[in-house]
Structure formats: structure tokens, C-alpha cells
Amino acid sequence: xxxxxxxxxxxxxxxxxxxxxxxxxxxxxxxxxxxxxxxxxxxxxxxxxxxxxxxxxxxxxxxxxxxxxxxxxxxxxxxxxxxxxxxxxxxxxxxxxxxxxxxxxxxxxxxxxxxxxxxxxxxxxxxxxxxxxxxxxxxxxxxxxxxxxxxxxxxxxxxxxxxxxxxxxxxxxxxxxxxxxxxxxxxxxxxxxxxxxxxxxxxxxxxxxxxxxxxxxxxxxxxxxxxxxxxxxxxxxxxxxxxxxxxxxxxxxxxxxxxxxxxxxxxxxxxxxxxxxxxxxxxxxxxxxxxxxxxxxxxxxxxxxxxxxxxxxxxxxxxxxxxxxxxxxxxxxxxxxxxxxxxxxxxxxxxxxxxxxxxxxxxxxxxxxxxxxxxxxxxxxxxxxxxxxxxxxxxxxxxxxxxxxxxxxxxxxxxxxxxxxxxxxxxxxxxxxxxxxxxxxxxxxxxxxxxxxxxxxxxxxxxxxxxxxxxxxxxxxxxxxxxxxxxxxxxxxxxxxxxxxxxxxxxxxxxxxxxxxxxxxxxxxxxxxxxxxxxxxxxxxxxxxxxxxxxxxxxxxxxxxxxxxxxxxxxxxxxxxxxxxxxxxxxxxxxxxxxxxxxxxxxxxxxxxxxxxxxxxxxxxxxxxxxxxxxxxxxxxxxxxxxxxxxxxxxxxxxxxxxxxxxxxxxxxxxxxxxxxxxxxxxxxxxxxxxxxxxxxxxxxxxxxxxxxxxxxxxxxxxxxxxxxxxxxxxxxxxxxxxxxxxxxxxxxxxxxxxxxxxxxxxxxxxxxxxxxxxxxxxxxxxxxxxxxxxxxxxxxxxxxxxxxxxxxxxxxxxxxxxxxxxxxx
Length: 826
Fold this sequence. Notes:
Layout: H1 2-30, H2 41-48, H3 53-68, H4 77-81, H5 89-102, H6 107-110, H7 114-120, H8 126-138, H9 145-155, H10 161-177, H11 182-193, H12 198-211, H13 223-228, H14 235-252, E1 257-262, H15 270-278, E2 280-285, H16 288-297, H17 306-319, H18 329-334, H19 340-356, H20 376-388, H21 395-406, H22 411-425, H23 429-441, H24 448-464, H25 470-479, H26 486-498, H27 507-516, H28 523-543, H29 567-580, H30 585-598, H31 604-611, H32 687-701, H33 706-723, H34 727-730, H35 733-744, H36 746-751, H37 754-770, H38 776-792, H39 795-808, H40 812-825
Antiparallel strand pairs: 1-2
Helix pairs in contact: 2-3, 3-5, 5-8, 7-8, 8-9, 8-10, 9-10, 10-11, 10-12, 11-12, 12-14, 14-17, 19-20, 20-22, 21-22, 22-23, 22-24, 23-24, 24-26, 25-26, 26-28, 27-28, 27-29, 28-29, 28-30, 28-31, 32-35, 32-39, 33-38, 33-39, 37-39, 37-40, 38-39, 39-40
């Protein structure tokens, strides 16, 4: 008992000492850290050049730490390259990460690690092999492109899917390094595209999109397999596969169409059946291959990755736009609960879809309400989505929400809300009248932004149908007295002058009121008053009868005021004199221009063209208008500067047959159909082996003399006795064909000499050496024949039997014996 306790005590003491030593070594390893956690160069180099793997790992971790902080660690490149053949997996990974980061900067030193990386391609660990091909292709040195090709060629047939996936990525990097190897890389890519592992297919398709996106013919036999494994591919691979299949379908699959179908009810009256015959339903009929893709892509609408959802939405929108796509609304609306960056992208795509179909998001208007925490960009897109979803059924909800935003303290939100109300007014005349009534009430508001934007929208609405809004112009003229905002006053005066030809009794009175306080008005208002006076006078001189011009001697030096023949002449001259002595250069120049044009009645056509030119009907499009040409999920919807977006190919009118998409299956035809019923062949025998044996027998038959043929007839008899059937019924097909060829070659065999026979026999023995395996049934037949021949003791029969043994056996000793037997028989 005491001895056992002493042993336990000794064990604990030993463990304590080991723990203390480990702690001391750990303190030593971390002692090189400074006070701020900075490694010293000499300590890191000492660790990297150490013989112990643990210290190498400490040094590589130190370098990784410095890399993560953005420090330049190129000075350690020679020391790191030495560890490229380290035994520890962790050290190799860190070395490979370092080489990927700094391999291009130090290309000459990076070449020193190529041999070690090439050796890693044959490592037992698949992770090491994958990282080796990744690093090899990541060192962007053009001189090692052939080495990368060799590594890719080896990796594409690797047993591990991790290595094959790394090879797919390496193909894209090798193409960027040297584009002259495109055909070779495409050949490797075809192998990876046909890979059965979904882990490899995603990366292979990404590489396909990068190097040869127009070679869609490479995907014929893989189309249906991709549809079946679509849900198993990684998320970012699904994005590429969906985009690639969308383009493939538009080129090689027929487009769906609407077909009218009539309801057939057997038990119905004639009158009712006649009525139902008139009422027909339309069904959307699509190709089975397209239906397979749509069925496989629909579950991806519930993916957690927003990019996958947008790619699936793009697929449905591009392939079946005529179908009912109401199921696309909930997946997109669900993404609005994500961070603001994702919300911005999703709302940009929702706006494009709403332009194409405004009923798509009508049931989900509450998801587009603006929250105080929303950024201005997101708030703008939400208001746009509300506007695009506005219709006769949703106008009340949309306008009430926009009117609430117009009373906000946020100036940006107020301006966007009023502009959105103007876009809603373009939907129908009823909605326009409703919007106009609300906007006219906002003219007396103290918010300058609200008043200015409201008048701008009012001007747009009036210009849509001027004759229907004469009373609206009169209301604006009345509101001019109470309007205090200079922008509002300038907009009202411009509206009155724009419609002066229609409302002749309104514009002169407005000009009279404005002339009283001309000196106190803002510069923008003064400009509009001068413009109003010029427009009114242009209409006046157009209606005035033509009179002869009266020339005055000093008219060029100082224009005189004409006698007040009409109040309009006096009012126009008074406004021009006020503007002539104003402090604004722009105002004085405008007044001088209008005076020179309108002073002479012969220049009335010029004045009419200048001041009465018809204005086109204003149209305030949605901010996202024009982005329909971009794909859903494309970065061009977010980054407006991207102009070279790859569009979808048009639908092909002449599509090939669906059989081109049949998968190629390597199935061998069974060989046992030609054998007798009672013969039980071994399952190891293949068709290829039987054909090879038959050719060998034919070669021997063409050179054997009559003595050998006699021995072979005995051989057949022995074979029949072995199977237990008569020779006429149990002889294999192979022997019958040999016998037929033997009759045809009788004359040639008699004419051959012994020298040619010896040469042919040696040739047959070489063929027998090339055979890799034989079945057990023929071995047993040959052994039975050997026993019968030994009892008969005929040397010629032994030679024939050894020749037949050369066709069956594969060992060198049996081949030599067969050759010697044939020579001795001759």
C-alpha cells in the first residue's frame, strides 16, 4: 500500500515539473511580445529558422498577426519560404497564406517554393493538396503557367472533391495569368462541369462564367443534372448557376406560351354548354425542361442569402414574365428586415419590378412605410415603391401616407413626398384632381420647401390639360396676395404668364398688382414679372392692327415713350423702365432684349416664337425609370455608372431537340447473351476480354499446320466433355467462328513454311503477355486438356495444347513453355 502511494506521489511530482516547464516555455515564447503586443524582428526570424515545429508555428502566428494589422512583413519572405515544406499542417497553411499575399511582390523568391508546393500536390492530406494548387495558381508569375497547368491536370482527377474544387478556381486564375491557354483550360473545365459532386459544380460554373460565358453548348448534357442538384450547391454557386441556366434556357429551350383551354362538362344543358364554350381559360404551357428548372428554383426563394433570392426572382422574371408571378412578392418583402445595405439593394430591384407590374406589391404596401431610422436613400426608394404601387384600389392608402410625410420636419422627406404625389397624379384624371385639391391648400404654408414643391407639382398638373384648369389659375392669382415665399410668388406668376393666352382677363390684373411692389420683390420674382409683361404685350401686338412705323431722329440715342393709346402699352413701358434701372445685370439684360424685340410691330413673328412657343406636356418619370434593361440582382441597378452590363440573350426561334440534354451513361452491353444456356460464365469476364481472345485464336489458326489442327480438334472434344454436352450444341460461339475461318484459310496454311510459323508463334506469345487477367472457367478447361494429353503422350498434341495455354495464361513461365512446346512439336 505504501509503495503504491509513493508511486502516485512520484507521478504527481513529475506532472508538476512538466507543467512548470511548459509554462516557462510559453512565457519564453511570448516574451518576444513588446508592451504593445509588437513582435521584434530578430525573435520572429529566430522562431522561423528553428528546428522545432512548435517554434515555427509561433513565428508564423506572429507574422499572421502583423498581416491582420496591416503591417508590411515582406522582410520575412526568405525565412517564410524555408518553411514551405514543413511537416505541421498549421505551419503550411500559414505559409501558404503568406505566399498568396506577398507572392506577386517577391516573385523571384516565391519561385524557390515551387518545388515544395509541387511535392505537396501528392500529399496524403486532401487539404494540403487543395492549398497547394490554390497557392500555385495564386502566385501570379507568368513563367510558372506551364507548371500550373500540370498541377490543374492532376487535380481535376483527384479523388477528393476539395481538391477538384480548388482546381476549378485555379483554372480562372491561370486564365488571367496567361490567356493563350484558353483551349486547354476549357478542356479541363469540361471535366469539372461534368463532376457529380455539387461541391465542385458551384466553383466550376463560376469559372465558366468568368472565362467562356458564351460557350453554352458545353452545358447540354449537364442541364438536367444541375436542376436536380441546385438545392445542394453552395449559396454563391447557386447565384452563378441560376444566371447561367437562365441564359441557357433562352437560347436552347422553347419559350412558354399562353394557350386557351375550354372547360368540358359532360353533364350540362345545351344552353349552358354554349355559354361555357364562349368562356375559355388561358393556361401557360411551358417545355418540360423549363418546368424542371422552375420547380428546382422555386424553393430558393426562401433562401437565407439575399443574392440567391434575387437570382431566383430574375430567373422567373426573365423566363416566364407572362405567368402569374404574385409569389415573388413575399420573398422580396421579407428581405426588408435585413440591414440597411441589403434593404437598399432589394428596394432598387423592387422598384424595377413594380414598374413592370404595379400590382405585384400592392398587397404589401405597409412594408414600404418610412421609419425615422431609415436613411434618406432608403426613404426615397420606399416612397418610390409606394408611388409605383398606386392604383385606383390603393390610391387612398398611398396618398394618405404621402401627405403625412409632407408635413414632416425633414426637408428631404417633404420634397420627396410632394414629388411622389405629383407622380401619383399622372395615374388617372380622378387621382390628379384629388392631388390638386390637396396641393392648393399647401400654398399658404410657412414651410418654404412644401410651398415650392407644391407649386411645381401644380404646374405639372395644369400643363397636362390647360383648358380644364382655368379656374385653378384664377385661384392661384388670388392666392398671390397672401403668398409670402418668393419661390411661391415666382411660380404663381410664371403659371399666370404661361396661360395668359387662355385667361386673358386674369394676367393683366396680376401684372398690375405686381408692378406696385416691383422694387421690393426678390430677384427671381422680378424676372418672372418682366417675363409676364413681355408675354402679355406679345399677345397685345398680335391682336393690334398693323400700322406704319414712325421713325424718329433720336430714337437710337434715347427711346421715347409712346403716347398711351392703350393701358397695356403704358403698363409694359412702366415695367421696362423699372427693370432698366434695377441693380441686377441679368434683369437689365432681359428687359433690354424684350424691349428691342417688342418695340417694332414687324418683329411680332419673332416675339411670338420667343415668348409663345408651345411647351411639351411635362412628365415626371420615376427615378428608376430606364433601369428595366438591367437584370434583377445586377449591380447596375445600384451603381448607375456601370454602363457595360451583359444583357440576357434573346429568345431563340429555332431551338434544337430536347435529346441534346440527355445525360451520357457509360453502360456496357452484357456478353453472356451469346453463350449457351447451361454455361455459367464468371461475372468477372467482360466483352472486351472475349474479343481479344478471339482475335488471338484466329491469328494462331491462320498459321498452324495440319498436325496442329488435328490436336486442336481433340482440344475441342475435351472442351465438350468438360461441359458435358455434345460438340454440336455446346460449342461456344467463339470456337464456331474460328472453325469457319479455318476452312477459308486451308490453302494458305498448307503453303506456309516452318520459318514463318515460328515467327507467328512468337508473335502470339507476345500477345498473350499483354493480357492482364483470365477467367477461372478457361483455366479449368486448359488443365483438363493437359491431363488428357499427358496420358496420350503425343508430342504434337502437347505442342497444340501448350499453344492453347498461351491464349489463356498470363505468366511468363507458361508463355515460354508454350513456345518451346510448339517448336518441339514442329
